[in-house]
Design a protein that fits this description.
By secondary structure, the protein is α/β, with parallel strands linked by helices. Helix content is about 50%, strand content about 15%.
Length: about 325
């Protein structure tokens, strides 16, 4: 198998047929041995039925259905676990990424790269998302210096590197964080970012914020360092404040603090303590999730899978 194309599917019943047709046309034209792995992440629509219809006509399609919604990164890792290709391509299900560009990414990878990203000079997302994405990438670059900065969900990964991703044991997966830890031998190819074929992005501001927090806490100790410095600064403020009160008492220049100033100090330092405890709690919570050994994903059923030990797991 030369190429495995892994696609996490979420609420994409309107795009799957067109996506499959365009992928097949591109890969068949170049006489490439390939497979397409569609991982249905329980979006609540009719995507699984559409996947079954597709694989009934094309035996090069593998359909995998998860037991519940585990998220894009978990679904992608699930697809990678099933992949048999020498090169593993990951892409979205909304046709914002052009299947024609896969061959350009493969060509770049064959120059000796472990990993190649398709990067976008301009993005078709809403303005607020482009701005927040740019800000978060700069923050990630600061907090996680060894991270591959030009990352995207449109990737070509060498098989052994991709398979190494499946060995990571974390309840909060971030594929590009894993790849940055595994290799820095990566390249980029500029590709056009097209408009969605149907509907709107399911990534809301809240989901993006949660994802960003997960990345910071999972792959960086910067929040803990900030907590240390905040605590140190708060200690200095308290020490100076307390020393000034003692000196004023010694020299008889006693000034009775008002209730407002007293309460403002209590609220400020109380809030600071809660912030510090909250950040520590995030790290402790992740430790707890990790030691419970919960699986990253669970497969409900799969079709056209040659490895029967992985097929029809927990099928109702």
């Amino acid at each position: 198998m030369q190429i495995s194309v892994v696609i996490p599917v979420y609420k994409s019943e309107q795009t799957l047929v067109q996506l499959h047709r365009r992928l097949s046309d591109v890969l068949n034209q170049h006489d490439i041995e390939y497979e397409i792995i569609l991982v249905e992440d329980c979006g609540g629509d009719n995507s699984w039925q559409v996947i079954q219809n597709i694989l009934a006509e094309d035996k090069r399609v593998v359909g995998v259905r998860l037991t519940r919604n585990f998220g894009q990164h978990a679904a992608t890792i699930c697809g990678i676990a099933y992949a048999k290709g020498e090169w593993i391509v990951t892409m979205d299900d909304d046709l914002e990424q052009n299947p024609d560009d896969i061959l350009r990414l493969i060509s770049k990878a064959e120059e000796g790269k472990d990993l190649v990203y398709g990067v976008y000079p301009t993005r078709s997302h809403a303005s607020w998302r482009n701005v927040t994405s740019s800000i978060m990438r700069k923050l990630f670059d600061l907090a996680i210096p060894n991270m591959n900065y030009n990352y995207s969900s449109f990737r070509v990964i060498r098989r052994d590197v991709a398979k190494a991703i499946t060995t990571f044991d974390s309840p909060y997966p971030f594929i590009d964080g894993y790849l940055s830890w595994i290799t820095h031998n990566y390249g980029t190819v500029e590709v056009e970012h097209h408009s969605r074929f149907h509907g709107q992005s399911t990534y809301t501001f809240t989901k993006l914020l949660k994802h960003s927090i997960n990345i910071f806490v999972t792959f960086s100790d910067l929040p803990l360092k900030l907590v240390t410095w905040i605590g140190f600064v708060a200690f200095l403020i308290g020490a100076v404040w307390g020393s000034s009160i003692i000196l004023m008492n010694l020299f008889g220049n006693v000034v009775a603090s008002g209730f407002s100033s007293l309460m403002s100090g209590v609220v400020f330092f109380g809030g600071l303590n809660m912030l510090i405890l909250g950040i520590l709690g995030e790290y402790i919570g992740r430790i707890n999730f990790k030691v419970t050994k919960k699986p990253l994903y669970m497969v409900s059923e799969s079709c056209n899978c040659e490895d029967k030990t992985q097929c029809y797991i927990n099928k109702d």
